[in-house]
Amino acid sequence: MNNIDHKRKPETVLPPITVVEDEARRLNALASSSAVLFPRVAHFLAQEMERASVVADNSDLRDVVRMGSQVRYSDDKTGEVRDVVLVYPHEADITLKRVSVLTPVGAALIGLSVGQAIEFHTPGHNKRSLTVLGVSN
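RE: above sequence
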């Protein structure tokens, strides 16, 4: 008899991500302190930090999205290309294309390398996927 559960959703395979020590520490603290106000995105950010490879602060992460990075990415569904700067929440300003790491897109971008794609959920429970096209630090 076949015991495979066909109703079970396949797990999304997440790309490897890299974060420097100082940013990992700050982002873990941000996720913890934001858990009550923004539980879903704080949980997502905490999960991303748990699975991240943490490297020394002086590591050369030229093509990796870090805090303060200017990032070009494409929405994999619509093909729309956007240029944003990834910032901490107090620096966010969508009119200046400064996206907080405490948003689903920001939390998805942190630690990705050029060419990597990631799938995540929006606040409306929709799946979204984006691909990093370019990074400048």
